[in-house]
Design goal:
- By secondary structure, the protein is an alpha/beta fold.
- Among the domains are: 174 residues, ANL, N-terminal domain (Rossmann fold, 3-Layer(aba) Sandwich); 64 residues, Luciferase, Domain 3 (Luciferase, domain 3), CATH 2.30.38.10; 98 residues, ANL, C-terminal domain (GMP Synthetase, Chain A, domain 3).
- The protein is built from 15 helices and 25 strands.
- It has a nine-stranded mixed sheet, with helices on both faces. The protein has a four-stranded parallel sheet with strand order 4-3-5-6, sandwiched between helices. Strands 16-17-19-20 form a four-stranded antiparallel sheet, with no helix packed on it.
- A hairpin with a 5-residue loop joins strand 7 and strand 8.
- Helix 1 runs parallel beside helix 8.
- The termini are far apart.
- The model has no long low-confidence stretch (mean pLDDT 97).
- The protein binds malonyl-coenzyme A and adenosine monophosphate (AMP).
- The site of malonyl-coenzyme A has 22 residues, from helix 8 and strand 13.
Protein backbone atom coordinates (compact mmCIF):
# COMPACT_ATOMS: atom_id res chain seq x y z
CA UNK A 1 0.00 0.00 0.00
CA UNK A 2 1.53 3.32 -1.09
CA UNK A 3 -0.95 5.83 0.28
CA UNK A 4 -2.10 6.12 3.88
CA UNK A 5 -5.66 6.90 2.82
CA UNK A 6 -5.66 3.77 0.63
CA UNK A 7 -4.68 1.78 3.72
CA UNK A 8 -7.54 3.35 5.70
CA UNK A 9 -9.94 2.84 2.79
CA UNK A 10 -9.02 -0.83 2.54
CA UNK A 11 -9.95 -1.23 6.20
CA UNK A 12 -13.35 0.51 5.93
CA UNK A 13 -16.32 -1.79 6.54
CA UNK A 14 -18.27 -3.02 3.50
CA UNK A 15 -21.29 -1.21 4.88
CA UNK A 16 -20.17 2.42 4.58
CA UNK A 17 -23.30 3.64 6.37
CA UNK A 18 -21.70 2.53 9.64
CA UNK A 19 -20.62 5.24 12.06
CA UNK A 20 -16.92 6.04 12.01
CA UNK A 21 -17.02 8.72 14.66
CA UNK A 22 -19.49 10.40 16.95
CA UNK A 23 -18.91 13.90 18.25
CA UNK A 24 -19.58 15.03 21.82
CA UNK A 25 -22.62 16.85 20.43
CA UNK A 26 -24.06 13.55 19.21
CA UNK A 27 -23.31 14.03 15.50
CA UNK A 28 -22.57 10.72 13.79
CA UNK A 29 -20.15 10.71 10.85
CA UNK A 30 -20.32 7.62 8.67
CA UNK A 31 -17.58 6.01 6.60
CA UNK A 32 -19.56 7.06 3.51
CA UNK A 33 -19.32 10.68 4.66
CA UNK A 34 -15.59 10.33 5.29
CA UNK A 35 -15.13 8.90 1.79
CA UNK A 36 -17.26 11.58 0.13
CA UNK A 37 -16.03 14.60 2.05
CA UNK A 38 -12.35 13.70 1.82
CA UNK A 39 -12.97 13.14 -1.91
CA UNK A 40 -14.45 16.62 -2.16
CA UNK A 41 -11.43 18.14 -0.45
CA UNK A 42 -9.10 16.22 -2.79
CA UNK A 43 -11.08 17.43 -5.82
CA UNK A 44 -11.03 21.00 -4.54
CA UNK A 45 -7.27 20.87 -4.06
CA UNK A 46 -6.92 19.80 -7.72
CA UNK A 47 -9.26 22.58 -8.85
CA UNK A 48 -7.23 25.14 -6.90
CA UNK A 49 -4.09 23.89 -8.61
CA UNK A 50 -2.47 22.44 -5.48
CA UNK A 51 -0.19 19.74 -6.82
CA UNK A 52 1.12 16.52 -5.36
CA UNK A 53 4.10 17.22 -3.11
CA UNK A 54 3.02 20.80 -2.36
CA UNK A 55 2.18 21.76 1.23
CA UNK A 56 -1.19 22.57 2.71
CA UNK A 57 -0.68 24.40 6.01
CA UNK A 58 -3.53 24.04 8.46
CA UNK A 59 -4.16 25.91 11.71
CA UNK A 60 -7.72 25.09 12.71
CA UNK A 61 -9.70 23.75 15.64
CA UNK A 62 -10.52 20.07 15.95
CA UNK A 63 -13.65 19.00 14.06
CA UNK A 64 -14.76 16.19 11.76
CA UNK A 65 -14.16 18.63 8.85
CA UNK A 66 -10.53 18.97 9.95
CA UNK A 67 -10.30 15.19 9.65
CA UNK A 68 -11.82 15.36 6.14
CA UNK A 69 -9.17 17.94 5.25
CA UNK A 70 -6.35 15.70 6.50
CA UNK A 71 -7.71 12.70 4.63
CA UNK A 72 -8.37 14.79 1.51
CA UNK A 73 -4.74 15.88 1.45
CA UNK A 74 -3.60 12.27 1.74
CA UNK A 75 -5.91 11.29 -1.12
CA UNK A 76 -4.61 14.10 -3.30
CA UNK A 77 -0.97 13.27 -2.53
CA UNK A 78 -0.35 16.76 -1.15
CA UNK A 79 1.59 17.23 2.06
CA UNK A 80 -0.55 17.88 5.13
CA UNK A 81 1.09 20.32 7.52
CA UNK A 82 -0.88 20.89 10.72
CA UNK A 83 0.06 23.58 13.23
CA UNK A 84 -0.75 24.03 16.92
CA UNK A 85 -3.83 26.26 17.12
CA UNK A 86 -2.11 28.29 19.85
CA UNK A 87 0.71 29.62 17.65
CA UNK A 88 0.91 33.40 17.38
CA UNK A 89 1.59 35.47 14.25
CA UNK A 90 5.33 35.65 14.85
CA UNK A 91 5.55 31.87 15.19
CA UNK A 92 3.35 31.34 12.14
CA UNK A 93 5.46 33.72 10.09
CA UNK A 94 8.41 31.36 10.41
CA UNK A 95 6.49 28.17 9.64
CA UNK A 96 4.88 29.66 6.54
CA UNK A 97 8.02 31.23 5.17
CA UNK A 98 9.91 27.97 5.70
CA UNK A 99 7.28 25.60 4.29
CA UNK A 100 6.08 27.83 1.44
CA UNK A 101 2.64 26.22 1.26
CA UNK A 102 0.41 26.31 -1.82
CA UNK A 103 -2.68 26.64 0.38
CA UNK A 104 -3.31 27.75 3.95
CA UNK A 105 -6.41 26.87 5.94
CA UNK A 106 -7.15 28.95 9.04
CA UNK A 107 -10.05 29.91 11.26
CA UNK A 108 -12.23 32.82 10.15
CA UNK A 109 -11.00 34.83 13.12
CA UNK A 110 -7.39 34.50 11.99
CA UNK A 111 -8.12 35.03 8.29
CA UNK A 112 -6.90 38.61 7.97
CA UNK A 113 -3.65 37.98 9.79
CA UNK A 114 -3.09 34.68 8.04
CA UNK A 115 -3.69 36.21 4.60
CA UNK A 116 -0.89 38.72 5.20
CA UNK A 117 1.51 36.03 6.46
CA UNK A 118 0.62 33.64 3.63
CA UNK A 119 1.15 36.34 0.99
CA UNK A 120 4.54 37.08 2.51
CA UNK A 121 5.40 33.40 2.05
CA UNK A 122 4.22 33.51 -1.57
CA UNK A 123 0.90 31.73 -0.95
CA UNK A 124 -2.15 33.35 -2.49
CA UNK A 125 -4.92 31.03 -1.34
CA UNK A 126 -6.22 31.07 2.22
CA UNK A 127 -9.43 29.20 3.03
CA UNK A 128 -11.24 29.08 6.34
CA UNK A 129 -12.54 26.32 8.54
CA UNK A 130 -14.13 26.91 11.92
CA UNK A 131 -14.74 24.55 14.82
CA UNK A 132 -18.38 24.19 13.71
CA UNK A 133 -17.24 22.87 10.32
CA UNK A 134 -18.25 26.01 8.44
CA UNK A 135 -15.96 28.13 6.32
CA UNK A 136 -14.87 28.72 2.76
CA UNK A 137 -13.12 25.35 2.62
CA UNK A 138 -16.35 23.50 3.30
CA UNK A 139 -18.38 25.79 1.02
CA UNK A 140 -16.02 25.36 -1.91
CA UNK A 141 -15.66 21.63 -1.34
CA UNK A 142 -19.44 21.25 -1.67
CA UNK A 143 -19.34 22.86 -5.12
CA UNK A 144 -17.04 20.25 -6.70
CA UNK A 145 -17.71 16.63 -7.57
CA UNK A 146 -15.85 14.38 -5.16
CA UNK A 147 -12.78 12.57 -6.35
CA UNK A 148 -13.52 8.87 -6.17
CA UNK A 149 -9.97 7.57 -6.49
CA UNK A 150 -6.76 8.06 -4.59
CA UNK A 151 -3.63 9.73 -5.97
CA UNK A 152 -0.93 7.31 -7.05
CA UNK A 153 1.66 8.26 -4.51
CA UNK A 154 4.82 6.27 -3.92
CA UNK A 155 5.38 4.78 -0.48
CA UNK A 156 8.36 7.07 -0.06
CA UNK A 157 6.38 10.24 -0.86
CA UNK A 158 5.86 12.65 2.01
CA UNK A 159 2.34 12.42 3.45
CA UNK A 160 2.68 14.94 6.25
CA UNK A 161 5.11 17.44 7.62
CA UNK A 162 5.17 18.32 11.31
CA UNK A 163 7.41 20.99 12.75
CA UNK A 164 9.53 20.06 15.69
CA UNK A 165 12.21 22.09 17.39
CA UNK A 166 15.61 20.57 17.70
CA UNK A 167 17.92 21.22 20.60
CA UNK A 168 19.11 24.43 19.03
CA UNK A 169 17.94 26.77 16.33
CA UNK A 170 14.57 27.00 14.69
CA UNK A 171 11.90 24.39 14.26
CA UNK A 172 12.41 21.90 11.46
CA UNK A 173 9.76 20.25 9.31
CA UNK A 174 9.88 16.49 9.85
CA UNK A 175 8.90 14.84 6.56
CA UNK A 176 6.88 11.69 7.24
CA UNK A 177 6.17 9.34 4.37
CA UNK A 178 3.11 7.27 3.58
CA UNK A 179 5.23 4.18 4.28
CA UNK A 180 6.24 5.44 7.74
CA UNK A 181 2.74 6.33 8.79
CA UNK A 182 1.20 3.11 7.49
CA UNK A 183 3.91 0.94 9.04
CA UNK A 184 3.65 2.56 12.46
CA UNK A 185 -0.14 2.54 12.59
CA UNK A 186 -0.32 -1.12 11.48
CA UNK A 187 2.21 -2.04 14.15
CA UNK A 188 0.19 -0.29 16.86
CA UNK A 189 -3.09 -1.91 15.81
CA UNK A 190 -1.42 -5.28 16.30
CA UNK A 191 0.51 -4.38 19.44
CA UNK A 192 -2.50 -2.92 21.21
CA UNK A 193 -5.06 -5.41 19.90
CA UNK A 194 -7.34 -2.92 18.16
CA UNK A 195 -10.46 -4.34 16.51
CA UNK A 196 -13.78 -3.15 15.17
CA UNK A 197 -15.30 -3.90 18.55
CA UNK A 198 -13.29 -1.05 20.04
CA UNK A 199 -14.56 2.40 20.85
CA UNK A 200 -11.73 4.92 21.13
CA UNK A 201 -12.31 8.03 23.20
CA UNK A 202 -10.39 10.63 21.16
CA UNK A 203 -9.74 13.81 23.14
CA UNK A 204 -6.22 14.67 21.93
CA UNK A 205 -5.39 17.60 19.68
CA UNK A 206 -4.95 16.55 16.04
CA UNK A 207 -1.96 18.67 15.10
CA UNK A 208 0.54 16.27 16.70
CA UNK A 209 1.65 12.69 16.22
CA UNK A 210 -0.28 11.41 19.24
CA UNK A 211 -3.78 12.51 18.22
CA UNK A 212 -3.24 12.55 14.45
CA UNK A 213 -1.27 9.42 13.62
CA UNK A 214 -1.45 7.21 16.69
CA UNK A 215 -5.09 7.66 17.68
CA UNK A 216 -6.63 8.18 14.21
CA UNK A 217 -4.29 5.60 12.71
CA UNK A 218 -5.34 2.87 15.12
CA UNK A 219 -9.04 3.66 14.82
CA UNK A 220 -9.20 4.02 11.05
CA UNK A 221 -7.12 0.92 10.35
CA UNK A 222 -9.16 -1.24 12.69
CA UNK A 223 -12.69 0.18 12.10
CA UNK A 224 -12.83 1.07 15.80
CA UNK A 225 -15.48 3.72 16.40
CA UNK A 226 -14.30 7.05 17.76
CA UNK A 227 -15.95 9.22 20.38
CA UNK A 228 -14.57 12.48 19.11
CA UNK A 229 -14.17 15.37 21.58
CA UNK A 230 -12.89 18.79 20.46
CA UNK A 231 -10.43 18.91 23.38
CA UNK A 232 -9.67 17.12 26.62
CA UNK A 233 -12.03 18.00 29.44
CA UNK A 234 -11.86 15.61 32.39
CA UNK A 235 -15.58 15.75 33.22
CA UNK A 236 -16.67 15.24 29.62
CA UNK A 237 -14.10 12.51 29.11
CA UNK A 238 -15.35 10.72 32.21
CA UNK A 239 -18.94 10.98 31.06
CA UNK A 240 -17.98 9.40 27.72
CA UNK A 241 -15.73 6.80 29.33
CA UNK A 242 -18.73 4.59 30.08
CA UNK A 243 -18.98 3.83 26.36
CA UNK A 244 -15.27 3.60 25.55
CA UNK A 245 -12.98 0.59 25.36
CA UNK A 246 -9.71 2.47 24.73
CA UNK A 247 -8.41 5.82 25.92
CA UNK A 248 -5.18 7.56 24.96
CA UNK A 249 -3.66 10.60 26.58
CA UNK A 250 -0.65 12.49 27.84
CA UNK A 251 0.13 12.10 31.58
CA UNK A 252 -1.69 15.36 32.41
CA UNK A 253 -4.94 13.76 31.24
CA UNK A 254 -4.45 10.97 33.78
CA UNK A 255 -3.65 13.29 36.68
CA UNK A 256 -6.75 15.34 35.80
CA UNK A 257 -8.91 12.20 35.61
CA UNK A 258 -7.55 11.12 38.98
CA UNK A 259 -8.41 14.51 40.45
CA UNK A 260 -12.07 13.79 39.77
CA UNK A 261 -14.06 11.67 42.25
CA UNK A 262 -16.10 10.55 39.22
CA UNK A 263 -13.22 8.28 38.15
CA UNK A 264 -14.28 4.92 39.53
CA UNK A 265 -13.99 1.26 38.56
CA UNK A 266 -17.60 1.30 37.44
CA UNK A 267 -17.09 4.32 35.23
CA UNK A 268 -14.37 2.56 33.26
CA UNK A 269 -15.89 -0.91 33.36
CA UNK A 270 -15.91 -1.20 29.56
CA UNK A 271 -12.40 0.16 29.02
CA UNK A 272 -9.86 -2.53 28.14
CA UNK A 273 -6.83 -0.26 27.57
CA UNK A 274 -5.47 3.05 28.79
CA UNK A 275 -2.42 4.33 26.88
CA UNK A 276 -0.09 7.13 27.97
CA UNK A 277 2.75 8.85 26.17
CA UNK A 278 4.38 12.05 24.89
CA UNK A 279 5.88 12.73 28.33
CA UNK A 280 7.02 10.65 31.30
CA UNK A 281 4.24 9.08 33.33
CA UNK A 282 4.97 9.53 37.02
CA UNK A 283 5.10 6.43 39.21
CA UNK A 284 2.52 7.96 41.54
CA UNK A 285 0.08 8.45 38.64
CA UNK A 286 0.58 4.87 37.42
CA UNK A 287 0.02 3.49 40.93
CA UNK A 288 -2.88 5.76 41.88
CA UNK A 289 -4.64 4.94 38.62
CA UNK A 290 -4.23 1.24 39.29
CA UNK A 291 -5.58 1.58 42.80
CA UNK A 292 -8.60 3.56 41.61
CA UNK A 293 -9.50 1.64 38.45
CA UNK A 294 -7.67 -1.68 38.53
CA UNK A 295 -5.90 -0.69 35.28
CA UNK A 296 -2.19 -0.55 34.64
CA UNK A 297 -1.76 2.32 32.20
CA UNK A 298 0.22 1.16 29.16
CA UNK A 299 3.09 3.57 28.65
CA UNK A 300 4.72 3.90 25.25
CA UNK A 301 7.41 6.18 23.85
CA UNK A 302 7.58 8.04 20.58
CA UNK A 303 8.46 11.26 18.89
CA UNK A 304 7.43 13.38 15.95
CA UNK A 305 10.32 12.20 13.81
CA UNK A 306 9.77 8.51 14.46
CA UNK A 307 6.20 7.84 15.47
CA UNK A 308 6.06 5.20 18.19
CA UNK A 309 9.28 3.39 19.06
CA UNK A 310 8.55 1.33 22.15
CA UNK A 311 5.56 0.11 24.08
CA UNK A 312 4.82 -1.80 27.22
CA UNK A 313 3.08 -5.06 26.39
CA UNK A 314 -0.66 -5.47 25.97
CA UNK A 315 -0.34 -8.89 27.59
CA UNK A 316 2.37 -9.26 30.17
CA UNK A 317 3.89 -6.96 32.72
CA UNK A 318 3.54 -3.21 32.12
CA UNK A 319 6.54 -2.16 34.09
CA UNK A 320 6.36 1.02 36.12
CA UNK A 321 8.89 3.66 35.09
CA UNK A 322 9.63 2.04 31.74
CA UNK A 323 8.38 2.58 28.21
CA UNK A 324 8.46 -1.12 27.40
CA UNK A 325 10.11 -2.88 24.49
CA UNK A 326 10.97 -1.80 20.95
CA UNK A 327 7.91 -2.29 18.76
CA UNK A 328 8.06 -4.84 15.95
CA UNK A 329 9.85 -3.29 12.97
CA UNK A 330 11.74 -0.80 15.15
CA UNK A 331 15.42 -1.45 15.81
CA UNK A 332 16.56 0.36 18.93
CA UNK A 333 19.94 0.75 20.54
CA UNK A 334 21.16 2.74 23.49
CA UNK A 335 24.39 4.24 22.22
CA UNK A 336 27.37 6.32 23.25
CA UNK A 337 28.37 9.58 21.59
CA UNK A 338 29.85 7.66 18.66
CA UNK A 339 26.74 5.64 18.00
CA UNK A 340 28.12 2.40 19.48
CA UNK A 341 25.68 0.40 21.59
CA UNK A 342 26.53 0.51 25.28
CA UNK A 343 26.28 -2.67 27.41
CA UNK A 344 22.78 -3.50 28.67
CA UNK A 345 22.05 -1.59 31.84
CA UNK A 346 24.29 1.34 30.98
CA UNK A 347 23.01 4.75 30.04
CA UNK A 348 23.24 6.28 26.57
CA UNK A 349 21.20 7.95 23.87
CA UNK A 350 18.33 6.12 22.19
CA UNK A 351 18.86 5.58 18.47
CA UNK A 352 16.25 3.96 16.25
CA UNK A 353 16.00 2.57 12.74
CA UNK A 354 12.97 1.32 10.84
CA UNK A 355 10.21 2.23 8.41
CA UNK A 356 8.72 4.44 11.11
CA UNK A 357 11.58 6.95 10.95
CA UNK A 358 11.27 10.27 9.09
CA UNK A 359 12.60 10.78 5.57
CA UNK A 360 14.44 13.91 6.61
CA UNK A 361 13.95 17.52 7.61
CA UNK A 362 12.32 19.81 5.07
CA UNK A 363 14.81 21.87 3.11
CA UNK A 364 17.52 21.07 5.61
CA UNK A 365 20.06 18.49 4.41
CA UNK A 366 22.60 19.49 7.09
CA UNK A 367 20.20 18.93 9.99
CA UNK A 368 19.04 15.70 8.36
CA UNK A 369 22.60 14.45 8.01
CA UNK A 370 23.42 15.37 11.59
CA UNK A 371 20.39 13.46 12.90
CA UNK A 372 21.39 10.11 11.37
CA UNK A 373 24.31 7.73 11.89
CA UNK A 374 25.98 6.38 8.74
CA UNK A 375 24.20 3.05 9.31
CA UNK A 376 20.81 4.75 9.18
CA UNK A 377 20.01 4.97 12.90
CA UNK A 378 18.22 8.16 13.93
CA UNK A 379 19.55 9.91 17.04
CA UNK A 380 16.59 10.74 19.28
CA UNK A 381 18.38 12.76 21.98
CA UNK A 382 16.55 10.81 24.69
CA UNK A 383 18.77 9.38 27.41
CA UNK A 384 17.93 5.85 28.51
CA UNK A 385 19.07 2.44 29.63
CA UNK A 386 17.71 -1.02 28.99
CA UNK A 387 16.94 -3.00 32.13
CA UNK A 388 17.85 -6.65 32.66
CA UNK A 389 14.59 -7.83 31.11
CA UNK A 390 14.81 -5.62 28.04
CA UNK A 391 12.45 -2.84 29.14
CA UNK A 392 13.60 0.62 28.01
CA UNK A 393 13.90 3.12 30.86
CA UNK A 394 14.05 6.79 29.84
CA UNK A 395 16.15 8.71 32.34
CA UNK A 396 16.36 12.13 30.73
CA UNK A 397 16.95 14.16 27.61
CA UNK A 398 20.19 15.26 26.00
CA UNK A 399 18.78 18.76 25.56
CA UNK A 400 17.19 21.02 28.17
CA UNK A 401 13.85 20.73 26.38
CA UNK A 402 10.84 20.92 28.70
CA UNK A 403 7.66 18.88 28.22
CA UNK A 404 4.64 20.68 29.65
CA UNK A 405 1.32 18.87 29.43
CA UNK A 406 2.66 16.90 26.46
CA UNK A 407 3.90 19.94 24.53
CA UNK A 408 7.60 20.47 23.96
CA UNK A 409 8.98 23.81 25.06
CA UNK A 410 12.43 25.00 24.01
CA UNK A 411 13.99 27.34 26.59
CA UNK A 412 16.00 29.23 23.98
CA UNK A 413 12.87 30.47 22.26
CA UNK A 414 11.59 32.05 25.49
CA UNK A 415 14.98 33.30 26.65
CA UNK A 416 15.44 35.07 23.31
CA UNK A 417 12.32 37.17 23.93
CA UNK A 418 13.04 37.93 27.60
CA UNK A 419 16.67 38.84 26.94
CA UNK A 420 15.68 41.72 24.66
CA UNK A 421 13.66 43.45 27.41
CA UNK A 422 15.07 46.55 29.09
CA UNK A 423 16.74 45.99 32.43
CA UNK A 424 17.23 42.28 31.74
CA UNK A 425 20.78 40.97 31.74
CA UNK A 426 20.07 37.36 30.90
CA UNK A 427 17.44 34.73 31.50
CA UNK A 428 17.47 30.99 32.05
CA UNK A 429 14.28 29.07 31.34
CA UNK A 430 13.89 25.73 33.08
CA UNK A 431 11.29 23.04 33.69
CA UNK A 432 10.50 21.98 37.25
CA UNK A 433 8.02 19.39 38.57
CA UNK A 434 4.43 20.58 38.19
CA UNK A 435 1.43 18.68 39.56
CA UNK A 436 -0.72 19.29 36.48
CA UNK A 437 1.63 19.72 33.53
CA UNK A 438 4.37 17.30 34.64
CA UNK A 439 6.92 20.04 34.12
CA UNK A 440 6.13 23.70 34.61
CA UNK A 441 8.02 26.37 32.69
CA UNK A 442 9.91 28.82 34.90
CA UNK A 443 12.04 31.80 33.84
CA UNK A 444 14.86 32.86 36.12
CA UNK A 445 15.80 36.39 35.11
CA UNK A 446 19.01 38.19 35.98
CA UNK A 447 18.13 41.85 36.17
CA UNK A 448 20.59 44.67 35.62
CA UNK A 449 21.32 46.75 38.71
CA UNK A 450 19.78 50.22 38.83
CA UNK A 451 18.19 49.86 35.40
CA UNK A 452 14.64 48.96 36.37
CA UNK A 453 12.91 46.16 34.51
CA UNK A 454 9.37 45.38 33.31
CA UNK A 455 7.05 43.84 35.89
CA UNK A 456 6.13 40.16 35.87
CA UNK A 457 2.76 41.01 34.28
CA UNK A 458 4.42 43.11 31.57
CA UNK A 459 6.89 40.36 30.71
CA UNK A 460 4.11 37.77 30.56
CA UNK A 461 2.08 40.06 28.29
CA UNK A 462 5.06 40.51 25.96
CA UNK A 463 5.64 36.76 25.82
CA UNK A 464 1.96 36.05 25.17
CA UNK A 465 2.06 38.43 22.22
CA UNK A 466 4.81 36.42 20.59
CA UNK A 467 4.59 32.82 21.76
CA UNK A 468 1.88 30.19 22.13
CA UNK A 469 0.39 30.24 25.64
CA UNK A 470 1.79 26.88 26.73
CA UNK A 471 5.34 28.23 26.32
CA UNK A 472 4.77 31.22 28.60
CA UNK A 473 6.40 30.62 32.01
CA UNK A 474 4.02 29.84 34.86
CA UNK A 475 6.44 31.67 37.14
CA UNK A 476 9.12 34.34 36.79
CA UNK A 477 11.91 34.67 39.32
CA UNK A 478 14.10 37.79 39.42
CA UNK A 479 17.68 37.31 40.62
CA UNK A 480 20.83 39.38 40.78
CA UNK A 481 23.02 36.56 39.56
CA UNK A 482 22.74 33.16 37.94
CA UNK A 483 24.81 30.10 38.98
CA UNK A 484 27.64 29.48 36.52
CA UNK A 485 30.26 26.83 35.87
CA UNK A 486 33.96 27.45 35.34
CA UNK A 487 33.29 28.29 31.69
CA UNK A 488 30.81 30.97 32.72
CA UNK A 489 27.85 28.95 31.44
CA UNK A 490 24.62 29.04 33.44
CA UNK A 491 24.14 25.80 35.38
CA UNK A 492 20.48 25.03 34.80
CA UNK A 493 20.67 21.84 36.86
CA UNK A 494 21.36 23.98 39.90
CA UNK A 495 18.39 26.22 39.13
CA UNK A 496 16.15 23.19 38.67
CA UNK A 497 17.29 21.80 42.01
CA UNK A 498 16.80 25.08 43.84
CA UNK A 499 13.28 25.45 42.45
CA UNK A 500 12.20 21.81 42.53
CA UNK A 501 9.44 22.48 45.04
CA UNK A 502 8.15 25.67 43.44
CA UNK A 503 4.79 24.20 42.35
CA UNK A 504 4.37 21.67 45.15
C1 LIG B 1 -2.56 24.85 27.69
N1 LIG B 1 -1.88 25.66 28.52
C2 LIG B 1 -0.76 25.05 28.89
C3 LIG B 1 -0.78 23.81 28.23
N2 LIG B 1 -1.90 23.71 27.50
N3 LIG B 1 0.25 25.44 29.69
C4 LIG B 1 1.26 24.60 29.84
N4 LIG B 1 1.32 23.37 29.23
C5 LIG B 1 0.32 22.96 28.43
N5 LIG B 1 0.36 21.78 27.82
C6 LIG B 1 -2.26 27.00 29.00
C7 LIG B 1 -2.84 27.89 27.94
O1 LIG B 1 -1.85 28.59 27.26
C8 LIG B 1 -3.73 28.79 28.76
O2 LIG B 1 -2.94 29.77 29.39
C9 LIG B 1 -4.26 27.87 29.83
O3 LIG B 1 -3.29 26.81 29.94
C10 LIG B 1 -5.61 27.30 29.49
O4 LIG B 1 -5.61 26.81 28.13
P1 LIG B 1 -6.50 25.60 27.68
O5 LIG B 1 -6.29 25.33 26.24
O6 LIG B 1 -7.88 25.79 28.20
O7 LIG B 1 -5.80 24.45 28.50
P2 LIG B 1 -6.25 23.01 28.73
O8 LIG B 1 -7.46 22.67 27.93
O9 LIG B 1 -6.28 22.77 30.19
O10 LIG B 1 -5.01 22.19 28.05
C11 LIG B 1 -4.14 21.44 28.77
C12 LIG B 1 -4.01 20.09 28.07
C13 LIG B 1 -3.47 20.35 26.62
C14 LIG B 1 -3.03 19.26 28.85
C15 LIG B 1 -5.36 19.42 28.02
O11 LIG B 1 -2.26 21.06 26.69
C16 LIG B 1 -3.31 19.10 25.82
O12 LIG B 1 -4.27 18.55 25.30
N6 LIG B 1 -2.08 18.59 25.69
C17 LIG B 1 -1.79 17.42 24.88
C18 LIG B 1 -0.58 17.68 24.04
C19 LIG B 1 -0.33 16.56 23.00
O13 LIG B 1 -1.23 16.07 22.36
N7 LIG B 1 0.91 16.17 22.87
C20 LIG B 1 1.31 15.14 21.97
C21 LIG B 1 2.55 15.56 21.24
S1 LIG B 1 3.07 14.25 20.16
P3 LIG B 1 -3.51 31.22 29.77
O14 LIG B 1 -2.38 31.86 30.50
O15 LIG B 1 -3.85 31.86 28.47
O16 LIG B 1 -4.70 30.97 30.64
C22 LIG B 1 4.45 13.62 20.90
C23 LIG B 1 4.97 12.33 20.42
C24 LIG B 1 4.46 11.25 21.29
O17 LIG B 1 4.92 14.14 21.86
O18 LIG B 1 5.23 10.45 21.82
O19 LIG B 1 3.24 11.23 21.46
P1 LIG C 1 7.72 15.46 20.13
O1 LIG C 1 8.91 16.01 19.46
O2 LIG C 1 6.70 16.46 20.49
O3 LIG C 1 7.20 14.36 19.33
O4 LIG C 1 8.20 14.87 21.53
C1 LIG C 1 8.96 13.71 21.57
C2 LIG C 1 9.64 13.59 22.89
O5 LIG C 1 8.69 13.33 23.91
C3 LIG C 1 10.58 12.41 22.94
O6 LIG C 1 11.81 12.69 22.31
C4 LIG C 1 10.67 12.18 24.43
O7 LIG C 1 11.61 13.08 25.01
C5 LIG C 1 9.29 12.55 24.92
N1 LIG C 1 8.46 11.37 25.19
C6 LIG C 1 7.51 10.79 24.43
N2 LIG C 1 6.95 9.74 25.07
C7 LIG C 1 7.56 9.64 26.27
C8 LIG C 1 7.44 8.77 27.39
N3 LIG C 1 6.54 7.81 27.44
N4 LIG C 1 8.27 8.98 28.44
C9 LIG C 1 9.18 9.97 28.44
N5 LIG C 1 9.34 10.83 27.42
C10 LIG C 1 8.53 10.68 26.35
Amino acid sequence: MNNLYAAFRAAFPSDLSRTCLETDKGRAVTYAEIEEQSGRVAALLAKLGVKAGERVTVQVDKSPEALFLYLGCLRAGVIYMPLNSGYTASELDYFLSDAKPALVVSTRKALEEMTVLAAKAGCKIVLTLDADGHGTLTDQAQSVAPLTGIAETKADDVAAMLYTSGTTGRSKGAMLTHRSLIANAETLVQAWGFSEDDVLLHTLPIFHVHGLFVAFGCALLSRAKMLFHPAFDADKALAAMERATVFMGVPTYYTRLLASPALTKDKVAKVRLFVSGSAPLLAETFSAFHRRTGHHILERYGMTETGMNTSNPLDGERRLGTVGFPLPGVELRVADDDGCAVPQGETGIIEVRGDNVLKGYWNNPEKTAAAFRPDGFFITGDVARIDKDGYVVIVGRASDMIISGGYNVYPKEIEAVIDTLPGVGESAVIGVPHPDFGEGVVAVIRTLPDKGHPSEAEIVATLKGQLAGYKVPKKLIFVEDLPRNAMGKVVKAELRKANAALFK
